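Chain A, query sequence.
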Amino acid sequence: MYDEFMIAQIAVQTAQTVTQTGLGLGSVIAIVCSWTRNRSILWAILAGVLSWFYVLYFAMTRRAGEKKRVS
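Chain A, predicted structure.
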């Protein structure tokens, strides 16, 4: 019984850590993408709040100069 409780507690803590890290990563990617495109602190803050939504928007609306260059 005690082992099951410990395993459940570890699973919950792991899920919380993964969720928090994923949200933080999305915000960082969004801020970098926004700064690269707009060079504006206000737009970067807004992108950070929108997080993964902005990352998806950025990916769908990339310009020719923003795409990966093949050597």
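The mean pLDDT is 83. Helices lie at 2-38, 41-50, 52-60.
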